[in-house]
Amino acid sequence: MLSIHTSLVPPPPNVPSPLSWGDEKTVAEWFAGEWDLSMTPRMLTFDFPHTPAGTVELFRAYYGPTVRAFAALDEDGRASLAAKLMAHWTRHGGLTSKVTRVEAEYLEVIAVRR
Q: How far apart are CA 51 and CA 109, in angstroms?
């Protein structure tokens, strides 16, 4: 979903993408030296009791990156973002589904200072 945001609203300059936290090599570079690292890919199931359209509205109202992306766009950009998010959530819930379930992979990072 964040890649949809950044396709329309690029992140500020000199700010690493939050998507970088999913790349083991990048995380290892960030913590090189004084840290012992453990990195484990994990799965998380998000269950939203909303249709895909309702899930778009939930994120549009309450999820900071989505709120900021909509605020940064003009009317056409907001329509494009809404359509892309609707397509994203529809792939995970189906157009007529009353719930949206998403299996999401993330990288669990444990860093312990030596």
A: 32
Task: Tell me the C-alpha to C-alpha distance, in Å, between residue 55 and each of 7, 79, 94, 97.
Answer: 20, 16, 12, 11
Q: Is the pLDDT of residue 66 over 90?
A: yes
Give the DSSP letter of residue 1.
-
Q: Has this prediction a pTM greater than 0.85?
A: no
Opening angle at CA 83, ends 90 and 100, nearest 5: 25
Q: How many residues does the chain have?
A: 114
3-state secondary structure of 101: strand
Per residue in 74-91, pLDDT (tens digit) is 999 999 999 999 998 888
Maximal CA-CA distance, the chain? 52
- Give the whole-angstrom CA distance, residue 55 versus residue 62: 11
